[in-house]
Amino acid sequence: MAGEKTCGIGLIGAGIVGGGVAELLMTRRELLARRTGLDLELTAVADVDVERAAAMGVPRDRIVSDYRRLFDNPDIKVVVELIGGTGVAAEAVMAAIDAGRHVVTANKALLARRGREIFARAGKAGCIVAFEAAVAGGIPLLISLREGLIVNRFRSLLGIVNGTCNYILSRMAASGLSFADCLAEAQRLGFAEADPSADIDGLDSGHKVALLSALAFETWIDFSSLHIEGIQNVQDEDIRIARDLGYTLKLLGVIRPETPPELAADGPGGGTGRLFLSVHPSFLHDGDPLAGVSGSLNAVRTDGDAVMESLFYGRGAGRYPTASAVVSDIVAVAAATFFGGRGPRWFPPERNAYELAPMADYRTRYYLRFTVRDKPGVLGAITTVLGRNGVSIAAAHQFEGNHPNGVASVCIVSHTAREGDILTSLTEIGGMDFMQGNPALIRIEE
Amino acid sequence: MAGEKTCGIGLIGAGIVGGGVAELLMTRRELLARRTGLDLELTAVADVDVERAAAMGVPRDRIVSDYRRLFDNPDIKVVVELIGGTGVAAEAVMAAIDAGRHVVTANKALLARRGREIFARAGKAGCIVAFEAAVAGGIPLLISLREGLIVNRFRSLLGIVNGTCNYILSRMAASGLSFADCLAEAQRLGFAEADPSADIDGLDSGHKVALLSALAFETWIDFSSLHIEGIQNVQDEDIRIARDLGYTLKLLGVIRPETPPELAADGPGGGTGRLFLSVHPSFLHDGDPLAGVSGSLNAVRTDGDAVMESLFYGRGAGRYPTASAVVSDIVAVAAATFFGGRGPRWFPPERNAYELAPMADYRTRYYLRFTVRDKPGVLGAITTVLGRNGVSIAAAHQFEGNHPNGVASVCIVSHTAREGDILTSLTEIGGMDFMQGNPALIRIEE
């Protein structure tokens, strides 16, 4: 490596992704040196389980059990946090910043929940916190939003950003099996964790949506105010009905300004007004490129007012795809350290371009399904309530479905309607004597 | 703009894309200042047609007819070349470099043909030549390859990188009309130029493939050695037959190492052996995400050994999408000027990672169509020759098609075969007395 500057890397967390990062750094040191002019040295790995780190092929004299030991070594310029979660990971990131180290992390939960504090602390210390791998794994999405599309104001962002949910929904559609059966299968095959709640409840997608909002819409939200619905209540019946109607069900992160920016206009806020931010199961028309993204893949579609529609598609998780993104951050941070420049330095917007809009004001087409006792006048009663609340109906169907005798499904597809009017209608309809259980509400994104 | 550093921009060429760049720089000065910390000033626009520049809203005292005037102004740090072609554009780029200016260009023809010389000259002068807009227009593809996926060695790259060809092929498939009819339609609608030859002959795609080879495969080729077939000879009959077989026809840029790199292996060349580089009409299975990219859109699919399959999809041309990419380069170059660092600095590889492989050694499945006099033994004669040359047949069909009496089409789909063996067979078959005209050969990419 004669001639290259050596940049020491300290890695915290020798798990799946940590192992991939260590392997890539060790086996591709020459390749990266040729491509970057930097000798990236995996100087030390910290993990409470020393044996796990040793099994990755890291020499034992480079393994420590206490991550704080990394900060004693002045050669370590970049600290890579791959513990995950908001406990020890938060302490490690704060400690690294306090020790004046640049940080690379894939930790979407930590940044979505405590990002303001972390970025402020990093700013004060002059440190970079890079997080390409935190959203959409291996897909170079954040650098594309932050740099490649920098002149755009976005009219919308729709993303499939959780591979576990996409795998389960794809399997439900392909097999006709229930959510519970497909979750169990995903767990057997390693596509879902033993405790899958952070994925299926939509929290993981929510973390990513919060970060995408900050990057692409200059709007940093309090994570607790985000609207999140997971896939845990998705019924196979709705997937079947939707298929007949030409729709595919996906868990989407959705970001939409209430009034999309226009190309000609400009404002100091990069947009003005209110922003809808949500994670929810959505029907997409079968012809939509996002509808064709199946299995554990991720995809994000943006609509920039200059560039128009773009789609980024690839592996959102997994050992090497995520490690690919982490290493790209390591390279960028190391380059900024040795060659100067801002590198992947980023801080949340000082002033939000948008306010958060309440979902009651969301406007789209809605799919509603009611389980009813099959008696005369039911369809009329439901449609009358919707009409009175200003919801115009595009299609209505009544099925016998799989229900026992005398119970049927009524399925309504609305024209574009205001969500508050839909919810008011559902409350009214819910009080009617023919109703059995709760209605299903699924937004149709177009 | 208090507090920001002002970076003067000189724009050469007030055409479609130049107008878009000027408009974005003028209307989004504040937005860009907020996002970048830089005040990007459109200091001067050069165009031989001064009125055209004035029509873009540029104040007259900022318009010059001779681009060399831009170099007199020391405030102009970045020169944007949007003339296109390899004539005046080459002189302007060389002159800008000689005047010590960083260059942003969308000129794929110039870089593919004279890139070595230009980058060498820029290197000596300490100048950046940035060219995000040269491939796939608005899609942030080059930054993704150069930075986001930097640790990967690619196993393949397939791209639809010419919107004109994709529009024509999409229309042929949808309408059943001939190439000539669809070209005329594309010209009427502004999707093809009055002289469409650079697009339909595949040259434009070839320029992009040459640049992608350098960026993603560290292999810079002599442009004249690139294998290029356009769409000018595509027959509507083949599109129809293919549709029945479940294939869609696309003009693809294809880059494939003969021996794909493996994740575990590493070599100083980032890959070794030979590289297939080609532009040719290809059949893709209907389920392939690239097959669904229709109209004037572009898409590039890469297979990196760490990140696996990624797809980048969006507008490959057009005023604002291309301007979006040009402005991203302007921002990156300006940031490097004022904040330091390497910015989008890139130079062709000093040593090629791969040698160019002859297409005779290409291996894929082939679609062949022969127009024959319909007499006994024709199918047998054709398949016998193929078999003798080691080409194994997956399917064979004989159609009456649209031909006059006594003439038929014989269509063969091979298993994976060596292209040289296919060509030897075609020569032999071409000499047989039942042959009418030339056979069609279309590669099936999987």
Topology:
The structure is a homodimer of 446-residue chains.
Chain A: E1 5-12, H1 16-27, H2 29-36, E2 38-46, H3 50-55, E3 63-64, E4 76-81, H4 88-98, E5 102-105, H5 108-125, E6 129-130, H6 141-148, E7 154-160, H7 163-175, H8 179-189, H9 197-200, H10 203-217, E8 227-228, H11 236-245, E9 247-257, E10 274-285, E11 297-304, E12 308-315, H12 319-339, E13 355-356, E14 363-373, H13 378-388, E15 393-399, E16 407-414, E17 417-418, H14 419-430, E18 440-445
Parallel strand pairs in A: 1-2, 1-4, 2-3, 4-5, 5-6, 8-10, 10-13, 10-18
Antiparallel strand pairs in A: 7-9, 7-11, 9-10, 11-12, 14-16, 14-17, 14-18, 15-16
User: What is the CATH-assigned architecture of the largest domain in chain A?
Assistant: 2-Layer Sandwich
Strand tally of chain A is 18
Q: Calculate Rg of chain A over CA atoms.
A: 24 Å
The biggest beta sheet of chain A reads:
12 strands, mixed
**Termini gap of chain A:** 53 Å
The structural domain count of chain A equals: 3
Q: Which CATH first-tier class of the largest domain in chain A would you pick? A: Alpha Beta
**Greatest interface and its participating residue counts:** A-B, 60 and 60 residues
- Any idea what the CATH superfamily of the largest domain in chain A is called? Dihydrodipicolinate Reductase, domain 2
Oligomer: homodimer
Tell me the helix content of chain A. Answer: 25-40%
Large-scale geometry of chain A: elongated
Q: What is the helix tally of chain A?
A: 14
Structural category of chain A is: alpha/beta
Strand content of the residues of chain A, in percent?
25-35%
In CATH, the topology of the largest domain in chain A is named Dihydrodipicolinate Reductase, domain 2
Low-pLDDT residue spans of chain A: none
Mean pLDDT of chain A: 94
